[in-house]
Write a structure and sequence with these properties.
5 strands, five-stranded antiparallel sheet, about 35% helix
Amino acid sequence: MNADITMSVSAMTRSKDSKAVYVFFQDENRSAELSLPECKVLKNDGFDEGEIQKLCEYVDSERDVIYNMAKQINPVKALMK
């Protein structure tokens, strides 16, 4: 997999009665969006099945780190910049 893939994390959101975080991966030509806690692929534009599997495994293994990143995001403050 390309080493130039970047990852972005959303702020913690509410989806019905549970909390959710959205994780976005992107390189020059491809992008994918996954959601936690279920590690579901919401969008995939260009990654093959093996790459998507590796991204899912990464998100699952780094779940605590990703949640901590999401908790640090203040959406109101980000809009004010």
